């Protein structure tokens, strides 16, 4: 923000050579009427003020430092290649002054600090851990500044490193570098623009905005008029189409009427011609029919007699054939019946023999089965008799017990009555 505000703080008196008068600005605007975008470009193409040059130098140096920071991780992790590049980039006098050992130790120290920081587990609640983290960050920043200082003092060394390792695309640093390049372009344009040019640019932009607004209003108005005109045109086209449709229908009706009239006239002429032709043909056909009927009667008689003869012949042949067929069929049926009868008799004899064998086989079993049934019937009869005897005994015992209980009850009652009578007599 301070860099962006810096051009506004420059005294216009210090830029007298680059600021034109109002008349010059008017001439300049007239000059660029044919090319409107050139009005937005600054008239100066080079920074003349030392303050502006200093600001641009600082931004360029910052971009260079970003490039160096992008290569630091490769520098500290490739010690052998860096040693070769140091020998290639530094003179013999610089190498003799132990410059190589100092640079290598600086890179090793930076790598050691980075490794320590990455391996450390820092707790925000612990004050000692927080102090240790802050101190490591401070040391890493100081080491980065030392490496950047060396690279700035020896540009050829950094160029050789870029050639050796190629282009590096760290997304965060690339984005930051792009932002700084954009800032550089914006700052360069801002520093090249004088206050009067800035004011003229703002006025020109306002004028463009007003023109755009007026043009938009005009466009909207013309669009509305165009819509109305299009609607009127559509209505007129619709009206014309309706008229064309009506005329077309009328024309079709006229054509249809004339066609029907021609057809009716033609049909009447054809009907009259056909009736006359029919009358003459009728007479001719009547005579021809009489001739044909005579010939036909003759042919019919001949055909009738021949057909009767054929029918009689067919009937005779049919009767003969039927008789032969009945005889052959009778012989075949009798042969089949006799064969079936022989087979049935053979099966009957065989089954009869099997029946006798089975009867002989099952006869002792039947006798044994009869004995078993008889024994079961006897056992059942004995069981029933025993049950009846038991039931009679139970019934008799129940009757005896009931009589016995009644006897004991009556006896007890009789004794109580006798005791009661004796007591009454004793009281008296």
Q: Can you give a write-up of this model?
A:
By secondary structure, this protein is mainly alpha-helical. Helix content is 87%, strand content 0%. The chain has ten helices and no strands. Helix 3 packs across helix 6, helix 4 runs antiparallel to helix 6 (99-119) and helix 6 runs antiparallel to helix 7 (127-153). The longest helix is centred in the last third of the chain and has 233 residues, at 195-427. It is flat. The chain starts with a helix and ends with a helix. Mean pLDDT is 77; it is low at 1-35.
User: What is the structural class?
Assistant: mainly alpha
Counted beta strands: 0
Structure annotation, total helices: 10
**In one word, what is the shape?**
flat
Rg from C-alpha positions? 71 Å
Tell me the β content.
under 5%
Helical percentage: over 70%
- Overall average pLDDT: 77
Residue ranges: pLDDT <50 for 5 or more in a row?
A: 1-35
**Terminal CA distance:** 150 Å
Q: List the secondary-structure elements in sequence, H or E.
A: HHHHHHHHHH
Largest sheet: none
Summarize the structure.
With 428 residues, the protein is mainly alpha-helical.
For this entry, give a set of tags.
428 residues; mainly alpha; 10 helices; 87% helix; disordered N terminus
Write the layout of secondary structure elements.
Elements: H1 2-5, H2 22-31, H3 50-77, H4 79-89, H5 92-96, H6 99-119, H7 127-153, H8 155-165, H9 171-192, H10 195-427
Helix pairs in contact: 3-6, 3-7, 3-8, 3-9, 4-6, 4-8, 6-7
């Amino acid at each position: 923000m301070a860099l962006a505000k810096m051009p506004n703080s420059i005294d216009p008196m210090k830029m007298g050579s680059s600021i034109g008068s109002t008349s010059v600005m008017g001439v300049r605007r007239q000059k660029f009427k044919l090319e409107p975008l050139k009005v937005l470009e600054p008239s100066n193409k080079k920074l003349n003020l030392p303050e502006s040059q200093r600001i641009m130098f600082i931004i360029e140096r910052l971009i260079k430092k970003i490039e160096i920071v992008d290569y630091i991780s490769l520098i500290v992790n490739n010690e052998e290649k860096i040693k070769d590049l140091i020998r290639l980039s530094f003179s013999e006098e610089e190498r003799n002054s132990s410059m190589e050992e100092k640079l290598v130790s600086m890179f090793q120290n930076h790598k050691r600090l980075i490794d320590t920081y990455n391996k450390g587990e820092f707790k925000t609640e612990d004050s000692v851990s927080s102090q240790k983290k802050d101190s490591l960050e401070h040391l890493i920043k100081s080491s980065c500044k030392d490496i950047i200082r060396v690279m700035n003092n020896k540009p050829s060394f950094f160029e050789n490193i870029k050639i050796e390792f190629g282009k590096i695309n760290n997304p965060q640093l690339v984005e930051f570098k792009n932002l700084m390049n954009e800032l550089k372009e914006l700052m360069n344009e801002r520093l090249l623009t004088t206050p009067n040019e800035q004011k003229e640019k703002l006025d020109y932009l306002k004028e463009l905005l007003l023109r755009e607004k007026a043009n938009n209003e005009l466009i909207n108005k013309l669009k509305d008029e165009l819509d109305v005109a299009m609607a009127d045109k559509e209505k007129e086209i619709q009206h014309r189409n309706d008229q064309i449709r009506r005329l077309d229908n009328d024309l079709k009706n006229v054509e249809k009427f004339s066609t029907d009239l021609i057809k009716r006239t033609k049909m009447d002429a054809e009907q009259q011609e056909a009736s006359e032709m029919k009358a003459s043909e009728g007479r001719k056909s009547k005579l021809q029919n009489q001739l044909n009927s005579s010939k036909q009667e003759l042919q019919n008689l001949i055909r009738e007699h021949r057909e009767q003869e054929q029918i009689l012949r067919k009937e005779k042949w049919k009767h003969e054939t039927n008789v032969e067929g009945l005889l052959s069929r009778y012989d075949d049926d009798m042969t089949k019946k006799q064969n079936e009868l022989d087979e049935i008799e053979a099966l009957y004899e065989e089954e009869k023999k099997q029946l006798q064998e089975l009867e002989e086989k099952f006869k002792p079993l039947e006798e044994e089965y009869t004995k078993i049934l008889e024994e079961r019937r006897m056992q059942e009869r004995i069981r029933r008799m025993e049950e009846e005897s038991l039931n009679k005994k139970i019934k008799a015992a129940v009757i005896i017990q009931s009589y016995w209980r009644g006897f004991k009850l009556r006896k007890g009652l009789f004794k109580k009555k006798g005791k009661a009578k004796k007591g009454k007599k004793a009281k008296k």
